[in-house]
Amino acid sequence: MTRKGFLVLVAITALAGCSRPTPEQQFVNDAAQAMGGAERIGAVKTLVIEGGGTQFNIGQDLVPGASGQTFTVTGYKRAVDVQGGRARTELTRQPNFTFFQGPAAQKQVAGLDGAIGYNVAPNGTATRVPDLAAADRRTEFLHHPLTAVRAALDPMARLANPRTEGAESLLDVTTASGQAFTLAIDSTTKLPSRVVTTADNTNLGDVAISTTFAGYQAAGGLQLPSDLTTKTDDFTTQQIKVSSQTVDGDTGDLAAPAAAASAPAVSGPPPVTVAEEVLAPGIWYLAGGSHNSVLVEFSDHLMLIETPLNDARALAVIAKARELVPGKPLTQLVNSHHHFDHSGGVRAAISEGLTVITHQGNAAFYEEMAKRPHTIVPDALAKNAKPLTVEGVADERTITDGKMTVNLYPVTTAHSQTMLVAYFPTQRILVEADVYTPGAAVFMYAADFMAQLKPRNLRIDRIAPLHGKVAPYAQFVKDASAPPPATN
Fold first, then answer.
1. What residues are paired with 246 via a beta bridge?
2. Average pLDDT for 316-342
3. pLDDT grade for 484, boundaries at 50, 70 and 90
4. Per-residue pLDDT tens for 438-464?
């Protein structure tokens, strides 16, 4: 038996011997008893959960806050080494919407082996995830009643703030390793009803991650839930319907693959490279990563098109813009759309005093995003608070100084209904995000995008995509005319 298991059994004995347990201890006793007993919980070695369900496209749907885009999850299997702190989740998800990667199903494998989090690609290649992502997976380990109650039974755990809210009783738990979570139980049945933890989200800041449990069934001498629903704040991210669960069964090999185990730890964001390319006088293409930006020089100020991903990328792009044209103030950010990877640097832009120009459908979301607390991982705006100035674009908007002209056009596609593209009429350059990526395997939105461009009669020579490399417009027309991939 591991030291952890021994301590849990010690706790069981100690709690049983207390004639008058504290309210906190009684809470944990009740939950354990309802599930099958503290001794049985403490003795569990492994848990294997299988089933299927639904995933939701948080931060990437058609409009901010929408939850209509879903993936059907099949082949879900989560194998957990309860005593060893290891887990591996495998699933296949099929998009039920026009997904930018095409209609093919995607196999996903994500694991945790102590301090090492890892992913395994469909071709078998394993990579180590950053330490922050691994920490999130260690927290996710507690999002099941078996592991949560077991952690609360540990004599080294700190139990606090028992309370009642509606039909639930709640208790705050801090594990011996410092992980904090709230355990809720049904006030009548005493069965765990949900676990809540907090996490940092680049766009949303401090968020509550909750997993709700329902449909309890007997398994291996325990009562375990058959329905698990996970949310980020009020947004449902995953629903799993369990078809089978095995206690103390074979989990397979949960050790991190050698490639991930031997990889160096990633404790911070990767280095940011911003490579500039002159597209035309006064227009620079800022690349060097997965997401690009465009810098525009006017007679009295500078404009950036896109500050993507996160603070690190956004601040590096802003610094490069000021380096390229040091004599003029950078005052405007044109944001292509609300998707989290493209709006992840908006807060950094606000902290630098930039006015945010975006589709009018995103304005309210950015106003809320600018106000959200970021205390778990303070970002640039949390450290340097500035008011948000946001300008929503409802129809075509022209920004010009007489020499440099940028036209902004709202675009509605199956990727996003709140997009802007930028067109330089003199230079015949079009800047867009996601609706066309030169060199991609599939072009799910290109035909629709081309159909929306045609009525405007724009004279375009080049497309400067916010993913990929600059391409001739003729290549876009060719790719947009190709037949779409068949649906499985």
1. 48
2. 98
3. confident
4. 999 999 999 999 999 999 999 999 999
| Of 70, 405, 451, 82, the residue nearest 251 (C-alpha) | 82
Would you place residue 328 in the very low, low, confident or very high pLDDT band (cuts 50, 70, 90)?
A: very high
DSSP 29: H
CA dist., res. 150 & res. 162, Å (int): 17
CA distance 218 to 216: 7
Q: Cβ–Cβ contacts within 10 Å for residue 340, how many?
A: 17
CA 4 – CA 86 distance, rounded (Å): 14
| 3-261 and 275-481 agree in CATH topology | no
Q: Where are the domains of the chain?
A: 3-261, 275-481
- Dist. CA 185–CA 194, nearest whole Å: 7
How far apart (Å, rounded) are the C-alpha atoms in residues 407 and 435? 18
pLDDT in tens, 356-391: 999 999 999 999 999 999 999 999 999 999 999 999
Q: Is the pLDDT of residue 15 over 50?
A: no
Could you tell me which CATH number the domain at 3-261 has?
2.50.20.10
3-state secondary structure at position 132: helix
| pTM as predicted | 0.94
Among 265, 309, 303, CA closest to 288 = 309
Sign of the torsion angle spanned by Cα atoms 200, 213, 57, 359: negative
Burial class of residue 167, CB neighbours in 10 A (0-12, 13-18, 19+): exposed
Superfamily of structural domain 275-481: Ribonuclease Z/Hydroxyacylglutathione hydrolase-like (3.60.15.10)
SS3 readout for 298-322 = CCCCEEEECCCCCHHHHHHHHHHHH
Distance separating alpha carbons of residues 110 and 364, to the nearest angstrom = 35
Q: Residues near 461 by Cβ (< 8 Å), separated by ≥ 6?
A: 428, 429, 472, 473
Cα dihedral 64/55/165/65 (nearest 10): 0
